[in-house]
Design a protein that fits this description.
heterodimer; A: 304 residues; mainly alpha; two-stranded antiparallel sheet; 4% strand; globular; B: 343 residues; ABC transporter involved in vitamin B12 uptake, BtuC; two-stranded antiparallel ribbon; 14 helices; 74% helix; 2% strand
C-alpha cells in the first residue's frame, strides 16, 4: 500500500508532468495574446497536429533509427519545425488580414481555423486512435519506496526545463525578444519606430506553435496514443493556465501551467478523476473573482 | 467599413484593408440591392407575408424528416435570438451558450420527470434559475476585460456539462429520458407539427421581445456600450449594470428555449451541450450580422439546415465549413447581413 507521503510524492510527479504540458501550450497562448490580443482558439489543435506529425515521423524513422529515444527526439524536432511553419502560415493567411478588424472577427476566424485543423486531421486519420509504440520501457526509472519516477518522466521534465530557459533567454536577451515585448506594449508606436511588426508576429506564432508541438510529441510518448480531438480540452486548460499565471506574461504562463498541473493532480486524488475538468475551471473562476490579473499579470490600463 | 479605415490610418496597415475592400465589391453590391429593395415599406410587408405564409404552411406538405429539420431551425433561432442580446446587442463574447440552455433544460426536465410537476409551472422556476446562473457567471467576469468573459463562459460551459454527467439527479452520462410531454388545452403535445407551431409562436415572441429591447432606452444603452464602452461610461451609462442585465436577459431566453427543447425531445443528455453547440450558436449570430434580428434568424436557419443539406459530402462538411468561416471573416468581417447604422 501507498503511505500518505508516497501518495503526495506520486501526485506531485504526476502534476509536474501534466504541468509541463500545460506550461508549454499556454506559452503559445500567452505570447500570441500579449502581442495581438487574440484568444488563439486553434492553438490546442496545433498541439494535436504536433502530436500527429511526431507520430508519423516516428513511424517513418522507426526502420532507420529504431524506436528508442533517438527517433523520439528526431520526431520532436521535425514536429517543432513543421508546426512552427504551420503556425506561421495560419497567422499569415488567416489572422494577418484581420489584425485591425474588430476583435470578435479574429476570434471567429480562430474558431474556423480550429475546425479546419481538427476535421482535416480527422479525415486524414479516419478518426481513429493511433498508438505510439516506442521501445522505451515505460516502467523503468528511479524508485523511491513504492513510487517510481520513470526515465520518461525525467526526460520530459528535462526537455521542458531546457525549452523554458531558452525561451526566457530569447525573450529577455535577444533583439527579437525585445521587439516582442515592445509590440505587446504598443503596436502602432513600434511601427513608427521601424520595427517590422509583421515579421515579429510571425516569429511569435512560429515559436508558440513549435512549443505546442513539443508538448504534443511528449503526450504521444507519455500516454502512448494520439487522437484528432485531443487538442480541444488540452487547449482550454492551457488557456486556463495562462489566465491563472496572468495572460500576456511569459513567466506567468510557465508558473500557471505547473501550478494547474499540480492542483489538478491533487484535486483528482481527492475528488476522483471524473471531476478534474470542473476542478480546473473552478480554479479559473475563483482566480477571476479574487485576482483577475492572474498571479504575475500586470493591471492593464485600457487606452482610449 | 469606411469609418474603421479612417480610424486606423496611423498604423500603416491601411493598404491591406483597402485591398480587401476591392474584393468585397460583389457581396456589398448584392447586400446593397437587398437593402434598397427592403427599404420600401410595401416590399418589406410583401416579403414578410411570403415568408410567414411559407413558414406556417410547412407542416402541410413536409414529411416528418423535413418537419424535424424545420423544428430544429426554429429551436436554433430561439437560441440565437437569446445569444444575440449578449453578443449582438452588447458586443460581449459568449462561448458557452449551450450551458444556458442546459440550465433551462435540466431544471425543467428534473422538475417534470423526478418531481412530477406540470411543465408550464416549471417555467417561472426556469426563469429564476436562469437569472441565478447568469449572475453566477457574469458577476465575476463582467467587471473585467471582455476576453475574460469569453473564457469564463467557455469554462462554465464545460463545468455544467461535467456536473450534469456526474450527478445522480441529472441522470449521469445517459441523462433523463421518457419525460412526460406537456398538455395545451387538454391536448398532449405528441406530434411534431404541434411542436413546430409552438416553436414558431415562441420565435415570434422572442423576435417581439428582441425588438422591444433594441428600441428601448436599455437597448440604446447596450448599443452604446458595444460601440464604445469608454464613451458610454463617460456619458453616464452604468456599463457593468447594463451588461449584467443584457447577460441575464440573454441567459433567461436561452434557458426558456432549453426548457421547451427538453419537452419536445422528451429526453436530455449531457452530450447535447458540447462546445460545438455553443460555437454554432455564436457563429449564427456573428455571421448573421451581430444584432440584426432578421440576419441572426437567417444565420440560425442556415446553421441548422446546412449540415442536413450537406450530409452527402459527409465528413468533409465541417472542413468546408471551417474554410468558409475563415473566408467570410476575411472578406466580410461585419457578417453577411449586418445592421446598417442609423446616421
Amino acid at each position: 500500500m501507498f503511505s500518505p507521503g508516497e501518495i503526495i510524492l506520486q501526485q506531485t510527479v504526476n502534476g509536474l508532468i501534466l504541468g509541463c504540458f500545460y506550461a508549454l501550450i499556454s506559452l503559445g497562448y500567452t505570447m500570441v495574446y500579449g502581442i495581438v490580443r487574440l484568444l488563439n482558439f486553434a492553438h490546442g489543435d496545433i498541439y494535436m497536429v504536433g502530436a500527429f506529425v511526431g507520430f508519423f515521423v516516428f513511424g517513418a524513422l522507426a526502420a532507420i533509427t529504431g524506436t528508442g529515444w533517438l527517433s523520439i527526439i528526431l520526431a520532436m524536432v521535425a514536429a517543432m519545425f513543421l508546426c512552427g511553419v504551420l503556425g506561421f502560415l495560419i497567422q499569415r493567411f488567416a489572422y494577418r488580414p484581420l489584425l485591425d478588424a474588430p476583435r470578435l472577427s479574429l476570434l471567429i476566424t480562430a474558431i474556423g481555423v480550429s475546425l479546419i485543423l481538427q476535421n482535416a486531421m480527422m479525415i486524414l486519420t479516419n478518426g481513429e486512435f493511433k498508438f505510439f509504440n516506442h521501445s522505451v520501457n515505460p516502467r523503468a526509472g528511479i524508485s523511491l519506496g513504492n513510487v517510481t519516477i520513470t526515465w520518461i518522466q525525467m526526460v520530459l521534465l528535462g526537455i521542458t526545463a531546457v525549452l523554458l530557459i531558452s525561451l526566457t533567454w530569447f525573450v529577455s536577451k535577444t533583439i527579437w525578444g525585445k521587439a516582442m515585448r515592445a509590440i505587446s506594449m504598443d503596436r502602432p508606436t513600434c511601427r513608427l519606430m521601424g520595427i517590422n511588426v509583421n515579421t515579429i508576429i510571425g516569429i511569435t506564432f512560429f515559436i508558440g506553435s513549435a512549443l505546442a508541438a513539443v508538448a504534443g510529441v511528449m503526450a504521444c510518448v507519455y500516454y502512448g496514443n494520439v487522437h484528432y480531438f485531443m487538442g480541444y480540452i488540452m487547449g482550454m486548460k492551457a488557456f486556463t493556465a495562462a489566465v491563472i499565471g496572468g495572460i500576456g506574461s511569459i513567466p506567468g504562463a510557465m508558473l500557471g501551467g505547473l501550478l494547474l498541473g499540480l492542483l489538478e493532480a491533487g484535486g483528482t486524488q481527492v475528488l476522483g478523476s471524473s471531476w478534474k475538468d470542473v476542478f480546473a475551471f473552478g480554479i479559473l473562476i475563483i482566480m477571476l473573482i479574487f485576482k483577475p490579473t492572474g498571479l504575475l499579470g500586470k493591471t492593464e490600463v485600457e487606452r482610449m | 467599413m469606411e469609418n474603421k479605415n479612417n480610424l486606423d490610418l496611423n498604423n500603416g496597415e491601411v493598404a491591406v484593408v483597402h485591398e480587401g475592400t476591392a474584393k468585397r465589391g460583389f457581396f456589398t453590391r448584392i447586400i446593397d440591392s437587398v437593402y434598397s429593395f427592403m427599404d420600401k415599406t410595401h416590399n418589406k410587408i410583401i416579403v414578410a407575408v411570403i415568408l410567414l405564409a411559407f413558414v406556417l404552411t410547412v407542416p402541410l406538405w413536409a414529411d416528418n424528416y423535413i418537419l424535424q429539420v424545420a423544428w430544429n431551425a426554429m429551436f436554433y433561432m430561439l437560441l440565437a435570438l437569446g445569444c444575440n442580446i449578449i453578443v449582438g446587442f452588447t458586443g460581449m463574447v459568449d462561448l458557452g451558450f449551450a450551458a444556458k440552455f442546459a440550465v433551462g433544460a435540466y431544471t425543467s426536465g428534473i422538475l417534470v420527470h423526478t418531481f412530477g410537476w406540470n411543465f408550464w409551472l416549471t417555467l417561472p422556476i426556469v426563469v429564476i434559475v436562469g437569472m441565478i446562473a447568469a449572475v453566477l457567471i457574469g458577476g465575476p467576469a463582467l467587471r473585467l476585460r471582455s476576453d475574460y468573459l469569453a473564457i469564463v463562459t467557455l469554462g462554465f460551459g464545460e463545468i455544467v456539462r461535467t456536473v450534469a454527467r456526474n450527478l445522480e439527479i441529472t441522470g449521469s452520462a445517459s441523462g433523463l429520458s421518457g419525460i412526460k410531454r406537456p398538455y395545451i388545452f387538454g391536448t398532449q403535445l405528441t406530434r411534431i407539427w404541434m411542436w413546430y407551431y409552438l416553436f414558431v409562436f415562441l420565435v415570434f415572441l422572442f423576435v417581439v421581445a428582441s425588438n422591444r429591447v433594441k428600441d428601448s432606452r436599455f437597448g440604446r444603452g447596450l448599443a452604446y456600450v458595444r460601440e464604445d464602452e469608454d464613451a458610454a461610461r463617460a456619458m453616464g451609462v452604468n456599463v457593468v449594470k447594463f451588461k449584467m442585465w443584457a447577460f441575464i436577459v440573454g441567459t433567461v431566453m436561452g434557458a426558456i428555449a432549453g426548457a421547451f427543447y427538453v419537452m419536445q425531445m422528451a429526453a436530455v443528455s449531457p452530450n447535447s451541450f458540447q462546445f460545438t453547440q455553443s460555437s454554432n450558436i455564436l457563429l449564427a449570430v456573428v455571421l448573421g450580422g451581430m444584432g440584426k434580428v432578421p440576419g441572426v434568424m437567417a444565420g440560425a436557419a442556415f446553421f441548422s439546415i446546412f449540415p442536413e443539406i450537406f450530409r452527402s459530402i459527409g465528413e468533409y462538411r465541417m472542413l468546408f465549413f471551417g474554410i468558409a468561416l475563415v473566408l467570410v471573416m476575411i472578406f466580410r468581417p461585419q457578417g453577411l447581413w449586418p445592421e446598417r447604422r442609423r446616421r
